[in-house]
Amino acid sequence: MNRFLSTVLFVACTAGLLAAPIPDAFKVGGFAIGCQAYSFNRFTAFEAIEKCEQTGGKIIEFATTQRVSKEDNTKWDHTASDELIARVKEKLAKHGIRAVNYGVVPIPKDEAEARKIFEFAKKLDLYALTTESTDAIDTIEKLVKEYDIRVCFHEHARQPNNPGYKIWDPAWLRDFLTGRDARIGACADIGHWQTSGIAALDGVKTLSGRILSMHMKDRMELGPGQHDCIFGTGKADVGAILGELRKQGFEGNIAIEYEFNWDNSVPDIAQCIGFVRGWAAGQGQAR
């Protein structure tokens, strides 16, 4: 019996069945939605938490670039002390925000160095890490299994002068992830897809079953030179994307990374979250 149970647990773990989901208390319209702290990159991490609450968001994905607070100029990243992590967790609890993700962070091939990032994620009880470190995939897979923490591969826009940068393409990323642990997937940045000329809904369908998190954006048109806009006013067809995510059984986080109106983006992001809430209500899901 013990041998049987051990086998079941091993299979479950490798299938990604043991990694804890984000609690329903941190969802809006059935989605764990909130802010990528980079939306507030002109502010501190503490201010980002406050602003996330003001938008009506429930979760936050921490960036790698912010200082802690106006009073504390310490950098907030995976090098943080246990004391600082405790302070940030206290701040999150005060504002009713759940930290679910961290990135985009380079994860090195060196296991000892990569482990520091996973330890940070474990201490924060994160759902996932976000990276573009495709060269470290073997190290990542080993630590994903050990820590039971997901890793999401993010895609910036196509780089015409850098043919070696391939992760921008959802089809390439889909193939790259084939056969890997189910806890390794995509952080679908639909804004960067649109910059690359990819319709957001097409990208979501291409990566069906592999999307673990999102950087959700809307843009007025496909192609470069467009800035973010309020959901429902642009080209992304956010309602159709939400429907496709639900169809796929998506359980990850949606981090709104709003790269416009940098000094006063809270009203715009609040309207984006309002769009999701309204869409869900129209589907018969009021939360």
Commentary on this structure:
This protein has one domain: Alpha-Beta Barrel (TIM Barrel). It has 10 helices and 8 strands. An 8-stranded parallel beta sheet has the order 3-2-1-8-7-6-5-4. Helix 2 crosses helix 10. It is globular, with a radius of gyration of 18 Å. The relative contact order is 0.15.
SSE order: HEHEHEHEHEHEHHEHEH
CATH architectural category: Alpha-Beta Barrel
Strand count: 8
What fraction of the residues are assigned to beta strands by DSSP? 5-15%
- Structural class call reads alpha/beta
What is the tally of helical segments? 10
Largest sheet: 8 strands, parallel
Spatial sequence of strands, sheet with the most strands: 3-2-1-8-7-6-5-4
Query: Which CATH first-tier class would you pick?
Result: Alpha Beta
CATH topology: TIM Barrel
Spell out the blueprint of helices and strands.
Layout: H1 2-14, E1 32-36, H2 45-55, E2 59-62, H3 82-95, E3 98-102, H4 111-124, E4 128-131, H5 137-147, E5 150-154, H6 170-177, E6 184-189, H7 190-195, H8 200-206, E7 211-216, H9 238-248, E8 253-256, H10 266-282
Parallel strand pairs: 1-2, 1-8, 2-3, 4-5, 5-6, 6-7, 7-8
Helix pairs in contact: 2-3, 2-10, 4-5, 8-9
Key terms for this structure?
287 residues; alpha/beta; TIM Barrel; 10 helices; 8 strands; disordered N terminus
Short summary of the structure?
It contains ten helices and eight strands. It is of the alpha/beta class and 287 residues long. It has an eight-stranded parallel sheet.
